[in-house]
Amino acid sequence: MAAIRVLGGEHMSYILNDQGRLLGFTRMDAALQGQDLPTESEAEAIARDFLAEAAPDLLATLEKHWIAPHDETFRVTDGARSDVITVTGMKVKMRNTADGRWFWVIVGSDRKVMTFERNIVWATFKGRRQTEKWLHDSWLQEQGDTVTSR
Fold first, then answer.
1. Which of 39, 40, 43, 126 is the Cys-Cys partner for 107 at CB 3.0 to 4.6 Å?
2. Three-state DSSP class for 120?
3. Is residue 80 pLDDT above 80, yes or no?
4. 4 in a structural domain
5. DSSP letters of 44-95?
6. Which residues span the domain enclosing 51?
């Protein structure tokens, strides 16, 4: 896996499995900050359209659980100035009824997909995520990952 970014900053990243299936995608863009969010119905329609294109196998077995605002924070650097900002999207959280795994689509204020993650497993006794967080800088840092660029 190669990243073209600095951990903690703006980036667009994606993960594919060995067969080329999209496992996750995220787009951390400062331009998404401070704008009006899509409505729940807009977010759900955008999420379903995205799934039809990027993960059609999930459409037939999805069970919607909830839709709500979701915040992501990252650092933006402009010359010598560096600020931590928060962007908010509408998270459409769903479950795959075929295997019990979770997936979600977060729709940004620009009405485009900001994040997609699939195959998420939660440890019910711990109430926390069991599966890797490949798209999350904090998880990568915990693993001792450093940025690679090409």
1. 43
2. strand
3. no
4. no
5. HHHHHHHHHHH-GGGGGGEEEEEEEEEEEEEEEEETTEEEEEEEEEEEEEEE
6. 16-140
